[in-house]
Design a protein that fits this description.
Elements: H1 2-8, E1 19-21, H2 29-43, E2 47-49, H3 58-75
Parallel strand pairs: 1-2
């Protein structure tokens, strides 16, 4: 995904990002833990777990997105 954002241009690859592991409802807790750890190692960032189907974790992701947008706006246009 990052390569696609970079290829698209417009500074998208430099934007702040949140990483979410979706479909938590279709995984066992052990699978979630393993996949979350693998994503965190590969990205070097925290990974949020959510399920679009059940809504699990969605409020937390939305709050994190709002916080990220608010902080970027506070820093100004160059940071957004």
């Amino acid at each position: 995904v990052r390569a696609e954002l970079d290829a698209y241009g417009g500074g998208l690859a430099e934007k702040p990002e949140l990483i979410g592991l979706n479909k938590a409802d279709a995984m066992t807790p052990r699978e979630i833990s393993a996949r979350r750890s693998a994503l965190a190692r590969a990205s070097g960032r925290p990974v949020m777990v959510l399920s679009g189907a059940t809504g699990e974790g969605v409020p937390e992701v939305l709050r994190a997105l709002q916080t990220s947008v608010t902080e970027a706006r506070r820093r100004g246009p160059a940071a957004a």
